[in-house]
Amino acid sequence: KREPDARIDLHGMTAERAHAALTGFILRAAGRGDRLVLVITGKGRVAAADALRARPGVLRNAVPHWLSQAPLAPLIVQIMPAHQRHGGGGAYYVYLKRQR
Asked: I need a labelling partner for 13 at 20 to 30 A (CA). Which of 30, 60, 64, 90 fits?
């Protein structure tokens, strides 16, 4: 029911660029005292010709892993798939800890 305090759209980025952008975004959001942020990854699509070479949903699969590692893990309470109106399976809600 709560609207996200901030959002970042990572889809279309390389994994390396997305990881750096996500890290900076979460650190800034936590520093501002945001409690809920939306991370849009996209669902990941693979053309039929690329199906054997590509891994669908690279960012969608990587984001929870990145959030569970330092330096972000200590800032996070919970990660949940977003509601359909916020991107559904192509986005995550990230609940941040209260900063003291």
From this structure: 30
